[in-house]
């Protein structure tokens, strides 16, 4: 037997957290595993690749966040052409019933899946009766009068409204990447940075300067083209305040917490240095981590 939270869970935002928390709580009551099902790649990447969808979480980031809210096991189902053609009813038979022995399923209020999205709430209720499991539909978490949704958060982050997006996420925005060779600009200014090589399908926030943390240490993150130096290749540059070690080749997870300002072009290097010192002073004053919850 198992309790299953079913969804894509991109971002593991406050709405997802409510679904997951309900599933985890119920699994503890029944003394069975709490399982989250997610998909990779994102279905939209196969169904409508022309959209160029960028994700709030890579698969590894998503799995870590799901574990953080108490999920015992994450089942990652490969989304390919075979799965795309599978009806919702067949999916329930093959995965939820036969493979996972489901006793209860938790979904968000607007969840739908399967070929032609036939696995909507109405049909899920019907199949729950047929296959003998309990369905729990969790109402939306709202900010103002609007439900918290991954699509809304993506739009906010891309538009530079990062601090609004963080409120909907309910946790810092993670960017994970291997530290590669940078352009030496930060080091030349006296503020050495680690250049992150980020997954192609990861949504990179709008250009600007951000406050964050790496392994509990505060950091400044510059995302952009560094226009003061006439460089036009976007980069994610991380300056960790209390670290002098060489990070080249290491995998770094940066938790972005706040957007301080938009990218700027300065008339000379000294003005840029002065602004960086102001940015770092702001970052030192930033509060601790945003805590995830299921409400």
What are the main properties of this structure?
alpha/beta, six-stranded antiparallel barrel, 10 helices, 2 domains, Elongation Factor Tu (Ef-tu), domain 3
Task: Please provide a written account of the structure.
- This protein is α/β, with parallel strands linked by helices and 295 residues long.
- The chain has two domains: 2-147, Rossmann fold; 172-284, Beta Barrel (Elongation Factor Tu (Ef-tu), domain 3).
- The chain is built from ten helices and 13 strands.
- A six-stranded antiparallel β-barrel has the order 8-9-12-11-10-13. It has a five-stranded parallel β-sheet with strand order 3-2-1-4-5, with helices on both faces.
- Helix 7 (150-158) packs antiparallel against helix 8.
- The chain is elongated and about 70 Å long.
- The model has no long low-confidence stretch (mean pLDDT 89).
